[in-house]
Structure formats: structure tokens, C-alpha cells
Amino acid sequence: MKFRAKINDVGCLNHFTRVVNTITKLTKACVLRLTVNNVYFVLSGKVANGGVSMWCELLQVNFFDEYQLEGVSADSNEICLEVAPENLSRALKTAQNAKFVKIKLTKKHCPCLTLAAELPSLSSVSRVVTHDIPVDVIPRRLWHDFKEPSMPDFDVSIYLPPLKTMKSVVDRMKNLSNYLVVEANLSGEMNLKIETDLVSVTTHFKNLGNPPWADDASQGGGQSRPVEAMAHARVDIRKLQQFLNGQQVNPSKAMCNIVDQRIVHLILLQEDVSLQYFIPAVA
User: Fold this and answer.
1) How many CA atoms lie within 13 A of 96 on its CB side?
2) Which of 59, 125, 211, 233 is the most buried (most CB within 10 A)?
């Protein structure tokens, strides 16, 4: 089992760092799944038990100049590692102006992702900063927990308003309640609502538009609904705030699928990164 990769381009390094920083805001621990063509950050929370789930997918060729992988076996050419993204983020922070960064799976006192960055130097002698990031190798029998989640059979799919605007609204609402109702319909309308014994506050968004797959009969629920009918889910406001606070990906598209009274499924798409985040509804 071997893995090594190298980033030479500063733009690619900064982009990768932003993705890792986003993951760091969302979870303290996740699975780093390495395959021949893709790098994934996976959080497999049990939605049925109230846990959030995350799936972040990167096309490795758009980030790494060199990328070599030998998985656990010829028929399973991938590696799954449990890692604390904050440790990876800290290591990348020291490498921001590096000439190159090498990442390698090593065996020290325990399995590690070793990150070596060659930094600019005033002398002819190069400075290499090395970080050993402890990881746990996940055995193959557990890999089924870290496969791509299927698209939920949603009732409504809608484009999100500007994330900064949404973040500002949610930050203010957090002072009023621990829970927030997210509701939307197939007419491009979305509401964020707080309802307590003392106060009721609603922020309305209109003309957001609905993704084309909202009209796809194969997706089930959305097709048979009246376009004005709202699908809603009541969620833990801290989990939504955590998602909005962490964003450094600058997506070209941001969408929300709602399974009525069950799940809010948030999707951020960029040219070479996609991030899915599942927040379960609470009673």
C-alpha cells in the first residue's frame, strides 16, 4: 500500500488548502479516501441517529502534478484513512509560499501522511519543513460505509441565495432559537423560519430558480407536487451555521434538496470540487 503526490503550482496549492479549510470547519475527523482519479473527504454520520453526513469530491489531476497510488490490492486500488482535517490544515498553512509540496503515506511510530514543503530561502540551501500527520488505516471490510451517498428522493430542489446573505440571516436567527425551518417550493421560493413561544421570524427569498433535475420524473416526489407547495425540514441551526461559516470553496452553483420533514441536502459545485452536506430534520 503506497501513496505519494506532489503539488508544484501555487494556485493549485491554495485551492487545495481552501478545500481542506472548509472540511476543517465541518468536522473534527473524517475519512480521506484516495482512488486513482479522485480524492474524497467523507463524513458518514448516521442520519437516522441525527448525525450529519458529508461527501467532498476532488478530481486529483486538477490539483496534483504527480500522483501515485497502490491500493490494498489489484482489484481494490484505493486507500481509506481516518484523519483529523485540522492537522492537515495546519500543515498546509506553513506551506503557502512553498516551491512544492510532497504528500506521502509513511510508517513512523504509526501510519502518517507526511507532508514536506520546500520553502523559499535567501541562501542557496533550501528549507524543507516536514509534518507527520497521524492517520488510521481503515480496513477494507469497512469501506462500504464510505461510498458516495445516493441522491435522496427529494420533494423540492432549489438554488440557494448568495451564501453570505444566507449566513448573515442564520447568524442573527441563531440568537433566537436552536432550530430553524428551511422550506422551499418549485416556484423558486425559499423561506428560513424561526418559531418559538415568544417570537416568529421568517426571511423570504424569491426568484431563486429550480435546478433542471427538479423536473426529472426519475427523481420522484418533485414531479407530482404543486409548484407552490412548500417542502420543509426543521434542523439544528448550529449545523446549518457550521456549513455556512466554513465555506471557502466559492462554488459556481449552490443548491438545496429537501426531503419533506426528513433531510436538508446541500450541494456546492465548482469546476473541480463538489461538496454535499446532509442535515437530518429534527422533530
Assistant:
1) 7
2) 233
Cell of 153: 428522493
CA 249 to chain centre: 9
From the CB of residue 232, how many other CB atoms can be counted at a distance below 10 Å? 19
Q: How many CB atoms are located within 10 Å of the residue 120 CB?
A: 9
> Which cell goes with 22?
472548509
Per-residue b or e along 19-42, where b marks 16 or more CB atoms closer than 10 Å to that residue's CB: bbbbbbbbbeebbbbbeeeebbbb
Nearest to 181 by CA among 194, 171, 169: 194
For residue 91, give its domain range: 2-146
- How many C-beta atoms lie closer than 10 Å to residue 121's C-beta? 11
Contact 33, 80 (CB under 8 A): yes
pLDDT one-digit tens code per residue, 59-92: 999 999 999 999 877 778 899 999 999 999 999 9
**Number of domains the chain is built from:** 2
User: Domain boundary residue among 111, 146, 181?
Assistant: 146
- Residue 265 lies inside a defined structural domain of this protein: no
Can you list the positions of beta strands (E) in the chain?
Answer: 2-7, 30-34, 38-44, 53-59, 66-70, 79-83, 100-107, 111-119, 127-134, 136-137, 156-159, 179-184, 190-195, 200-205, 231-236, 253-259, 263-269, 273-280
- For residues 137 and 198, give the distance between their C-alpha atoms in angstroms, rounded to a whole number: 50
Q: What is the pTM of this model?
A: 0.89
